[in-house]
Amino acid sequence: MSFTRDDALARDAADPLARFRDRFDFGRSTCIYLDGNSLGRPPRAAIARIRRAMEDEWAGELVAAWDHWIELAREAGDVLAGIVGAAPGEVVVSDSTSVNLYKIAAAALDARGDRRVIVTDDDNFPTDRYILEGLARARGLELRSIRTDIDEGVTLARVKEALGTDVALLSLSHVAYRSGAIADLKGITAAAHQAGALVLWDLCHSAGAVPVDLAGAGVDLAVGCTYKHLNAGPGAPAFLYVRADLQPQLRQPIWGWFGQRDQFDMGPEYQPADGIERFLVGTPPVLSLYGVLEGARLTAEAGMAAIHDKARALTSYAVSLYDAWLAPHGFRLASPRDAHVRGAHITLEHPEAWRLCRAWKDAGTIPDFRTPDRLRIGVAPLYTRYVDLYDGLSRLRDIAENKAYEAYPATRSRVT
């Protein structure tokens, strides 16, 4: 199969989501951006809303603006609920992903206090593994780690092998952060429930990228970030999900005043709020919450079905370019080839991935590097074009063919 730039432009012309690209602010950047699965571009609506909050609300109303800030965490959560297949009142925006994971994992372990095992997998995102390790050590529990193929992702069969009547909590990522492999959300959740365990899913690479049906799968708990595919901005607060019927049963460990039932009564004792607000802690970051709200609204407007269709088409196009251009230069596809079990990025393995990454960035394309020796290529269906992939991967082909990466040091420095 031959590829031309005109063919890429024709695909873009036929793209039903093409109109959303103009809803983002590109600033002065002329780069090809293939790292939106680490940090999304800013929506114009978010910039305008944050500016209005600063100029009209903060500057103009001062503390009186809390009259419409106080419900922002719940308001943004209800928009996100529609994106991840939950009901209003089951999602709230709060804290970071790590803190949220700690809060609801601790609550789940308390609810299964007669069980002594936490299960995760060895390719789960590091912060998840560290949080779970800390909880296990503090409580004298066993942390059982499933051996996972880092290209193909965690499987239902491996999960079933690790489950038993001693398991209190199973915690996994829905989309693998390295390879983009999609786990069997519904099947794994059902298997955990059959064993009597609660399930906590990390949706950081799912929310806004692939369809998620938390209610349909019967998921107990979930966390996710908002600054990747949801385009809420750097350091934007994360979200957490607790199934409605579980909310009265769980009490999270950080008792802050935003989780108090009668917050402004300033009572002497902590009484958790009745609903999802009981999982809040302290004063929310208002400006960032507006970023979450506008990013989520944009995603909801486009619709997850259309976003996922384009993500599969873009990544399949990238795989075809890899086959034609990059496989002959020593690259290996380190993601599932089947688009139905692949999220919104692909990963390529190469022994010189670090130096290739540096050279590629200097050539005007921003990818991501992940150990061991992997280039991660993210697509953001609301603004990534086929011609971006065509131009970006042609640059990578030229760098590999000419060995231009050899001019760069082989020693890695810290990269986010």
Automatic annotation (TrEMBL):
NCBIfam families: kynureninase
Subunit structure: Homodimer.
Function: Catalyzes the cleavage of L-kynurenine (L-Kyn) and L-3-hydroxykynurenine (L-3OHKyn) into anthranilic acid (AA) and 3-hydroxyanthranilic acid (3-OHAA), respectively.
Segments traversing the membrane: none
InterPro entries, per the entry: Aminotrans_V_dom, Kynureninase, PyrdxlP-dep_Trfase, PyrdxlP-dep_Trfase_major, PyrdxlP-dep_Trfase_small
Protein name: Kynureninase
Superkingdom of source: Bacteria
Catalytic activity: L-kynurenine + H2O = anthranilate + L-alanine + H(+); 3-hydroxy-L-kynurenine + H2O = 3-hydroxyanthranilate + L-alanine + H(+)
EC annotation from Swiss-Prot or TrEMBL: 3.7.1.3
Positions bearing N6-(pyridoxal phosphate)lysine: 228
Organism: Pendulispora brunnea
Pathway: Amino-acid degradation; L-kynurenine degradation; L-alanine and anthranilate from L-kynurenine: step 1/1; Cofactor biosynthesis; NAD(+) biosynthesis; quinolinate from L-kynurenine: step 2/3
Residue positions binding pyridoxal 5'-phosphate: 97-98, 125-128, 202, 205, 227, 257, 283
Enzymatic class: hydrolase
Organism classification: Bacteria, Pseudomonadati, Myxococcota, Myxococcia, Myxococcales
